[in-house]
Every structure is written in structure tokens, then in C-alpha cells.
Prior knowledge:
Blueprint: H1 3-8, H2 15-25, H3 29-57, H4 63-82, H5 90-98, H6 103-118, H7 122-135
Helix pairs in contact: 3-4, 6-7
Amino acid sequence: MDTDKIFDLFKSSGEEETYNELEQYKQHPLYFIGMFTKLINNYYSLNKSLIPFFKFIDEELQPEDVNKAGEFIVLSKAYEHICNIDVNNKQHQEALFIKSHDISLKTNLELSIKYFEKYEEYEKCKVLKEILDFLNLF
């Protein structure tokens, strides 16, 4: 009995192509920009309601500590996405041009620069500043 043939019966047609397309999209500059923006926007919009919730669960928990930890995690993860952008790459430039009128992208870049400056992570600031400067050309 060939189990591979049995399990092949349950595969939907095009499943592998869909997976490959998704993996390709995850390497596209619009994905990197979108994930950067989405992570930061969601964090700051949800943060106001989540911090009091944690305080309600554990009275000893300090909201400031939760806020600092959350901000570190989110901004670090967001940076992991946006640092893949190369302002000298033509495809990346086109993606940045498409997003150049997105005010939240510029705002999030500025917020991220201020955050990383506070912790003296100037290499990250340099990467973010290059992207912001490129966006400001439009």
C-alpha cells in the first residue's frame, strides 16, 4: 500500500502553486513595507486597550513594563521587515513610490527612528532614515 497515493487524494489542485505564490509574495518589497506599517499601526491602536486589561489580570504587573516590552517586541519585529528594503534596488524604489503617499508609513518610520535613537541603535536609525529620505523625495 502506497500511503503517498492515498494522501494525494486529499490534496486540492493548485495547493502547491498557491503556497509558492505566497512564498514569493513574502519576498516582495510591498510585503515588507506592509508588514512594517501593519505591525506598528496595530500595536499603537491596540496598546491603549490592552495595557489596562493586563493590569486587571495581575495587579502587581506594572503597565509601564508591559508597554516597554510590547514596544520593543513590535518595533524589533517591524524593523526585521523594513530592513529588507534597499533604496538602490529598482523594484524596491517602485514599491516605495507606490507607498510614498501613505502618511502612516512615514509616521511609523519617524516613530521607529526616535525609538531606536533612545536606545542608541544608530545602525537601525540609519536604515530607517535612508528609507524616509527616499520617500520624502516624492
